[in-house]
């Protein structure tokens, strides 16, 4: 007992005063324990906390014994660059704990990670994406119909309000079930599987907390400390296994392309390898989360900001209604891509409320790495927090204002900005991550997001439910969440949120 106490005290003293990172500013508790991160992961406010830490301590903050957060576009490039001397942090291995084998996101080794990306790329070719489009549209049509109380009633009256966080969540999960496995979850049409959305969210939230304290898992304390989140994670693992078992059994029966089929059929020439059955299950588990929660958050956030900024809403609606004369013209492709204002609104919404708001940690490898001229020794976890850099006024003047025009050229749009300003904004923009491990589904996601919002605007007038403030900030939520016109998210690695409550009427 006394020896243990002595050991702990020595470590704490070392970490506070003698550790190589001791000279960097940050909250006192975080100097000697990662419970600081676990606590904020529990509160779901890590994204906001990073913003405040940088406001208080500057661009380089020590927020854990071995962890540094930075807040510049140069750091963004240097930490995540393909040639950076870094690998994904051990944090990511927590996801592997449940699937037993690595998936792309949890693979630290560069060569192995590159192999997995080459395999996944074969499942996401432009031709494959085209093949998935009918599945995306089928779900989008159902979703649009469900915005009305009675789809046959085309009278111009406001329908009862829909909670967009729920409905967009159900939509993107149905899409992901279809395009990953050819197995729709039917969340839009039945409440049987809707519970799954909570399970996924809680499961990832649980992993997020445990990822910051891997010791919790080693000692199996997760079952005591994070019981409900742990149960959710196991449910999520079982569900993925069940889905993949079903999909394996369909081999040869499904003719159209889906991601799982693409992964099964993929072979890497460089290594002469394919994915094993276990790796396929793990990869499928990743795709469900990677492609659904993030896309749902982005669609919901865009709707929130459009409805809180009537001028932007009117301009976006005008663009969509002038570009298309028939609903079925609205799908991924050149015509949809001409809707620059719609695209700028989505980009700006993901800047204001990124679906992954915290740091995507990278660990300095042997020899350490130098970021923004500062050397960090091997083993240091360094990251740039998405929400913090997205609200850094050096790159985004008036960072808390929704201004889609910051992404538009002044030569083409009267209130746009210069090419240099857009370049600067892009240099700090990272909702999809950047560099070696950046998101592989960006094109798919934009097609989905623009198609869904485009169709809603083509079909309906929309308004916030009178009297409802769900999704908004407010004084009662504390200083950090007091902005009424900011969509409130809870950081669970991805994001959890509620609202806005929206009413629709046929145009
Ligand atoms: C708005 C929607 C989306 C957002 C905001 C988003 C965001 C992200 C982020 C932040 C990462 C982590 C990057 C890193 O660690 O540096 C990621 C990784 C990934 N995303 Fe997405 N994502 C979206 C949609 C999708 C979709 C639709 C798919 C696939 C169908 C997808 C597939 C992936 C994959 C496979 C990875 C792992 C990449 C790797 O580790 O190398 N994502 N995404």
Question: Explain this structure to me?
Answer:
With 507 residues, this protein is of the alpha+beta class. The protein has a single domain, classed as Cytochrome p450 (Orthogonal Bundle), CATH 1.10.630.10. The protein is built from 20 helices and 12 strands. It has a 5-stranded mixed beta sheet with strand order 1-2-8-5-3. It has a 3-stranded antiparallel beta sheet with strand order 4-12-9. Strands 6-7 form a two-stranded antiparallel sheet. A hairpin with a 2-residue loop joins strand 6 (369-371) and strand 7 (374-376). Helix 12 crosses helix 14 and helix 14 (277-308) crosses helix 17 (340-352). The radius of gyration is 23 Å and the shape is globular. The mean pLDDT is 92. InterPro entries: Cyt_P450, Cyt_P450_E_grp-I, Cyt_P450_sf, Cytochrome_P450_monoxygenase. Pathway: Mycotoxin biosynthesis.
């Amino acid at each position: 007992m006394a020896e243990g106490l002595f050991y702990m005290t020595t470590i704490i003293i070392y970490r506070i005063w003698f550790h190589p990172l001791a000279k960097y500013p940050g909250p006192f508790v975080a100097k000697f324990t990662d419970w600081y991160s676990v606590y904020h992961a529990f509160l779901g406010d890590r994204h906001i906390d990073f913003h405040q830490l940088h406001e208080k301590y500057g661009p380089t903050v020590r927020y854990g014994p071995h962890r540094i957060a930075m807040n510049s576009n140069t750091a963004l490039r240097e930490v995540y660059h393909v040639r950076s001397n870094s690998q994904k942090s051990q944090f990511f291995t927590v996801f592997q704990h449940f699937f037993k084998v690595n998936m792309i996101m949890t693979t630290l080794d560069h060569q192995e990670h590159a192999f997995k990306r080459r395999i996944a790329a074969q499942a996401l070719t432009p031709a494959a994406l085209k093949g998935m489009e009918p599945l995306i549209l089928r779900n989008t049509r159902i979703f649009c119909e469900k915005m009305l109380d009675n789809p046959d009633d085309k009278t111009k009256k406001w329908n009862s309000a829909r909670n967009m966080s729920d409905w967009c969540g159900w939509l993107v999960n149905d899409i992901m079930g279809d395009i990953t496995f050819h197995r729709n979850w039917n969340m839009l049409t039945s409440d049987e599987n809707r519970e799954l959305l909570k399970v996924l969210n809680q499961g990832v939230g649980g992993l997020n907390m445990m990822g910051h304290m891997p010791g919790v898992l080693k000692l199996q304390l997760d079952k005591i400390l994070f019981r409900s989140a742990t149960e959710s994670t196991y449910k999520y693992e079982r569900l993925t296994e069940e889905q993949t078992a079903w999909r394996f059994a369909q081999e040869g029966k499904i003719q159209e392309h889906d991601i799982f089929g693409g992964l099964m059929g993929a072979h890497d020439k460089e290594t002469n390898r394919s994915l094993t059955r276990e790796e396929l299950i793990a990869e499928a588990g990743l795709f469900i989360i990677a492609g659904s929660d993030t896309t749902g958050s982005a669609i919901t956030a865009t709707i929130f900001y459009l409805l809180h900024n009537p001028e932007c809403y009117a301009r976006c609606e005008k663009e969509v209604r002038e570009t298309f004369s028939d609903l079925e013209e609205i799908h991924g492709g050149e015509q949809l891509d001409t809707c620059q204002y719609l695209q700028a609104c989505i980009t700006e919404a993901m800047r204001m409320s990124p679906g992954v708001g915290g740091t995507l940690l990278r660990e300095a490898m042997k020899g350490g790495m130098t970021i923004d001229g500062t050397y960090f020794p091997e083993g240091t976890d360094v990251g740039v927090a998405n929400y913090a850099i997205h609200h850094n006024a050096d790159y985004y003047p008036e960072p808390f204002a929704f201004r889609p025009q910051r992404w538009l050229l002044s030569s083409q749009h009267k209130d746009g900005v210069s090419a240099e300003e857009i370049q600067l904004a892009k240099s700090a923009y990272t909702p999809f991550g950047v560099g070696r491990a950046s998101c592989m589904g960006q094109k798919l996601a934009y097609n989905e997001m623009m198609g869904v919002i485009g169709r809603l605007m083509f079909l309906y007038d929309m308004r916030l439910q009178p009297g409802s403030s769900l999704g908004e900030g407010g004084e009662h939520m504390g200083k950090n969440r007091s902005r009424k016109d900011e969509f409130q998210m809870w950081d669970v690695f991805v994001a959890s949120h509620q609202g806005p409550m929206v009413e629709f009427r046929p145009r």
